[in-house]
Amino acid sequence: MMLRMLSADDKIAEIKRLYYETTRQTIQQDLAKALDLLKSMASEEERERAAVYMDGLSQMRSEWGLARKKKATARLRKKKNHG
């Protein structure tokens, strides 16, 4: 099987796809994959084109992580008050 090198446009398209298709369950893996693609870009200009999607992925991870922590805290409080 022959692997082809991704162009800068291919890399940005993949980061964009990850941004639009990520879920709470896949955000960690998707962000890691997007970071690997970002690191492999040759120029600052290429990285700047992907920045808005990277920022969005990071924001989703933060928001979903906070929501998960709030749920866990609420469960602990409920358990403590009823236990």
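the 2nd protein, sequnce then structure:
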Amino acid sequence: MVSQSGMANPRIFGSVVHGDDVEGSDLDLLVDPAAGTSLLDLARLQVAIEAAIGVKVDLRTPSFLPEGFRGSVLSEAEPV
């Protein structure tokens, strides 16, 4: 399913999934962008999510994950 923002398949990863997040931790989110999604679209979505939930968000797409840990992030990511 693709949302109005052109993003699909939202997932969380990182410290929240590991259970070691603390006060002030950011929320690591992974989304699959629709064709034609720009970096500006991603930035707008990140700002909107941060405003809605009051937590710093690190919004990534699979292609923007460093190759060194892309596989582990993709395997641990949990659907929202």
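The longest helix spans residues 39-53. The chain has a mean pLDDT of 91.
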